[in-house]
Specification:
iron, 14 helices, 416 residues, 9% strand, globular, heme, Cytochrome p450, alpha+beta
Length: 416
């Protein structure tokens, strides 16, 4: 493969930095390690970590280049999939690999993505707008101004779980099960914590059984929901149990964890930059751009993983067939070569849309428009009510290197 199409990077100038350590994210001190990597080792071999050895890629340009080469850098579940949780060629104790279309290469990936993608198209998302606005307004109107509450529980989880229930036409009174299943599906720490893998398997089996019952109902009475769409697709209507569960994990985690943690990132982030919050309050027309900026700043999924399919030195360092590669979106979105003063929130940042939080290339998030709809709607409904979110205590963060988010965030609402 020719090397002229990519920029070769310098060899690592520093000792390996293991950025998979959960405490970096629990304590919100991941910024400096990634700054060191971008400056001194944009592509670095990490021989030891809780998740094994891997190449760490931390710069925006190199991640784009790797994402554009899916034949060389595979996402396939057979090689461990899209996170660092699994090994490439051996199963961990109690591990059950679940195929999902984000963890497939073409042509399987192409066929299954084409099945789901129309449900998230422009006209479909436009049709969701009024219901999303009404539901968001009801949640906000249920909150008391001046009283402390947990933003994660009362707003972020409630709104995203509600949207997910609508997409699946899942029983409304049982919608909070979707949150629990999402938490288990996205928690890669369980893969390496003794005893937790079997617990995770039990929860995902519970999810699979619940959706299998929905599947049978929709066979008899199909609708426009995601389960009905899969049933009516040649690419997805003969899925194995493992593949069915895998795609449910993808759609539920993708539709829940990511948007909910960006909603929490909005509440926490703008409280750290009151001048930017004031600018947004005075200029609500900035809301769509501010949403992109908050997605960039929060980056709700820290990394994606690929596997090298053949030896290559196209980037400089020698990557071997079978090596795992971690693409650190959370670092790329703070890359000084792309974003000016990247650790700050700038609601009018001109290039905010260059963020990689939705990925890039064939695996770019299929539900990005729905995420943007929910976030824009939340900010518009807050602005309509002239509500300001004030953080009044220390947040509790997710202690993991995959889902980047908040467990709890104490806030009070005020008027402006």
């Amino acid at each position: 493969m020719a090397t002229a199409a990519v920029d070769r990077v310098k060899e690592s100038e520093i000792d390996p930095i293991d950025v998979t350590r959960a405490e970096l994210y629990a304590e919100d001190r991941w910024q400096e390690p990634f700054r060191q990597l971008r400056q001194h080792a944009p592509i670095q071999w990490v021989p030891e970590s809780k998740f094994g050895a891997f190449w760490s890629v931390s710069t925006h340009k190199q991640i784009l280049q790797i994402e554009a080469l899916p034949k060389l850098f595979s996402s396939d579940w057979r090689y461990g999939g899209i996170t660092l949780a699994a090994e490439s060629d051996v199963l961990l104790p109690d591990e059950i690999r679940q195929p999902m279309f984000i963890a497939m290469d073409p042509p399987e990936h192409t066929a299954q993505r084409r099945t789901v993608a129309p449900s998230f198209g422009p006209s479909e998302v436009a049709a969701m707008k009024e219901e999303c606005r009404q539901r968001t307004g009801e949640v906000l109107d249920s909150l008391s101004v001046g009283e402390t509450f947990d933003w994660v529980e009362k707003v972020s989880i409630e709104l995203t779980t509600g949207q997910l229930a609508k997409l699946f036409d899942y029983p409304w009174e049982e919608r909070h099960k979707l949150t629990e299943w999402s938490d288990y599906g996205g928690d890669i720490e369980m893969f390496r914590t003794p005893g937790m893998m079997s617990t995770r398997n039990d929860k995902l089996q519970e999810m699979g059984m619940a959706f299998a019952a929905l599947w049978q109902q929709r066979i008899a009475n199909p609708g426009k929901d995601l389960v009905s769409v899969m049933i009516q697709s040649d690419a997805m209507n003969h899925m194995s149990e493992e593949e069915f569960i895998g795609n449910l994990i993808l759609l539920i985690v993708g539709g829940n964890d990511t948007t909910r943690n960006t909603m929490s990132g909005y509440a926490f982030g703008l409280s750290q930059f009151p001048e930017e919050r004031a600018k947004l309050e005075a200029n609500p027309e900035l809301i769509p751009n501010a949403v992109q900026e908050i997605i960039r700043w929060q980056t709700p999924l820290s990394h994606m993983r690929r596997m090298v399919m053949e030896d290559t030195d196209m980037f400089g360092p020698q990557m071997k067939k079978g090596d795992r590669v971690a693409l650190w979106y959370i670092s790329a979105n703070r890359d000084e070569e792309v974003f000016d003063d990247p650790d700050s929130i700038q609601v009018d940042r001109e290039n905010a849309r260059r963020h990689l939080a939705f990925g890039y290339g064939i695996h770019r998030c299929v539900g990005a428009r729905v995420a943007e709809l929910q976030l824009i709607t939340l900010l518009e409904e807050l602005a309509k009510r002239r509500l300001r979110v004030n953080v009044v205590g220390e947040p509790e963060r997710v202690p993991a290197c995959f889902v980047h988010g908040f467990k709890k965030l104490p806030v009070e609402l005020s008027r402006y």
